[in-house]
């Protein structure tokens, strides 16, 4: 097996490195076939990045990374074996294929095992505008992190300490190939600047922060603006109160509203469904949300955070609705889970791509929805993992602000919000257009008409 030396791969440009990964993939597939595998698939990846951390004006860490990974899966009929390595030496690659084959020969038949159907493989590869490398040097990254932290500390005399600031950049290259003759190449970049600040003294200290992240450098917020936003959020949390236990409307800020979409995705994922461990079993075609609610998957969105022409099985992705007029249109399936359920893959092996949750009315933002809510709770932070995926029961620690007569008044903490996800979905009253752009789930502020809020008062 002839492979490119690691040092040569690092020196080459991205297109040349992708070709090298594709060449390695082909050699591994050929070796698997020679060893008797009826089908095989290979994933090759290469990640490089720079990350710096500062605190109180001093540099804490500077880390440069360069990682590679090779994963091989082989099928002998319906028996499957997998092995992986980070070593590109020919002997290691040969041994990885042989290990995967040895494992497959000792496993039981699985009727759902095997590659996705050949006619479902992606054949078109649109330009997704996901490659924006940033030649960021360590000293530049340090300056950005220091500027971010300084802006936060200088914003208000009540900022008493900091948990530090960071600046990072990274790029990833990957190839997925299988014995259908499919070769898919992907490349992407990611950049971020963040800071966490502490305000107050003693038992009255509060912590919060902010960050900006993007695929392209020009889409990042200014470091000083990030620092000031972090300071504003931290100061706003000072002198929190608790609340009396009662039922009330709860408004989720955009950065926490997307967690509710995450619970939906978990419940309609193939793995949870075929294991019978979801509260949304047999929910296809049923009304889960208000009739005005729409959720769409947009995998070919230019500069989208999870744009892709194909999924983890090589299946072509497509724009489609997950929720239309409040009704669940489909599950989230890869080829394996689809076979387990007797259904067709939805092109979601490896997860969903870009999701867009439509606003209930144009122009709504958090403050407009708070006025609509009247009196209730604004949640800006969630804690704990109190979500039961089998029953849908929901109970999580929360922090945020008391809202009265449509005005955001004072911070609250030490509270728990509880309900059942099925009921919560039906009780959504508004979704804002104030989308947080830092996620592949595009959703604004979200208002639920009634939840149980448990406090200490």
Automatic annotation (TrEMBL):
InterPro entries xref list: Metalloprtase-TldD/E_C, Metalloprtase-TldD/E_cen_dom, Metalloprtase-TldD/E_N, PmbA, TldD/PmbA_N, TldD/PmbA_sf
Domain Metalloprotease TldD/E central: 132-238
One term under GO cellular component: cytosol
GO MF term set: metallopeptidase activity
Top-rank taxon: Bacteria
Domain annotation Metalloprotease TldD/E N-terminal: ranges: 40-104
Domain Metalloprotease TldD/E C-terminal: 246-455
GO biological process, alphabetically ordered: proteolysis
Record NCBIfam families: PRK11040.1
Similarity comment text for this entry: Belongs to the peptidase U62 family.
Protein name: Peptidase PmbA
Species, as recorded: Stenotrophomonas chelatiphaga
């Amino acid at each position: 097996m002839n492979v490119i030396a690691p040092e040569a791969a690092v020196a080459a440009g991205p297109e040349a490195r992708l070709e090298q990964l594709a060449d390695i993939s082909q050699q591994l597939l050929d070796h698997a076939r020679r060893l008797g595998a009826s089908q095989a698939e290979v994933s090759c990846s290469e990640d490089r990045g720079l990350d710096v951390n500062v605190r109180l004006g001093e540099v804490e860490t500077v880390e440069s990374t360069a990682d590679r990974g090779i994963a091989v899966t082989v099928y002998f009929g319906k028996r499957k074996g997998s092995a992986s390595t980070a070593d590109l030496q020919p002997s290691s690659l040969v041994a990885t294929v042989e290990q995967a084959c040895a494992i497959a020969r000792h496993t039981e038949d699985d009727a759902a095992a095997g590659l996705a159907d050949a006619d479902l493989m992606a054949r078109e590869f649109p330009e997704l505008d996901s490659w924006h490398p940033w030649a960021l040097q360590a000293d530049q990254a340090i300056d950005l992190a220091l500027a971010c932290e300084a802006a936060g500390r200088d914003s208000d005399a009540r900022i008493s300490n900091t948990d530090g600031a960071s600046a990072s950049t990274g790029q990833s290259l990957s190839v997925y190939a299988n014995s259908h003759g499919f070769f898919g190449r992907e490349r992407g970049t990611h950049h971020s600047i963040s800071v966490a600040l502490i305000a107050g003294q003693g038992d009255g200290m509060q912590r919060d922060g902010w960050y900006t992240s993007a695929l392209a450098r020009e889409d990042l917020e200014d470091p000083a603006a990030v620092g000031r936003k972090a300071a504003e959020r931290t100061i706003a949390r000072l002198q929190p109160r608790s609340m009396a236990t009662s039922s009330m409307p709860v408004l989720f800020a955009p950065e926490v509203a997307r967690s509710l979409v995450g619970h939906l995705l978990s419940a309609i994922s193939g793995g949870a469904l075929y294991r019978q461990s979801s509260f949304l079993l047999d929910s296809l075609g049923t009304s889960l949300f208000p009739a005005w609610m729409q959720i769409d998957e947009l995998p070919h969105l230019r500069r989208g955070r999870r744009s892709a022409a194909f999924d983890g099985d090589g299946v072509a992705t497509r724009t489609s609705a997950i929720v239309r007029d409040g009704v669940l249109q489909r599950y989230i399936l890869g080829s394996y889970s689809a076979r387990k359920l007797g259904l067709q893959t939805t092109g979601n092996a490896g997860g969903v791509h870009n999701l867009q949750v439509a606003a209930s009315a144009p122009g709504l933002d958090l403050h407009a929805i708070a006025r609509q809510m009247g009196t209730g709770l604004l949640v800006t932070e969630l804690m704990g993992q109190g979500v039961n995926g089998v029953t849908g029961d929901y109970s999580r620690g929360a922090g945020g602000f008391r809202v009265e007569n449509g005005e955001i008044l004072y911070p609250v903490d030490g509270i728990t919000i509880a309900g059942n996800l099925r009921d919560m979905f039906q009780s959504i009253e508004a979704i804002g257009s104030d989308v947080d752009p830092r996620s592949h789930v595009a959703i604004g502020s979200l208002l639920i008409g009634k939840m149980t809020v448990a406090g200490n008062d």
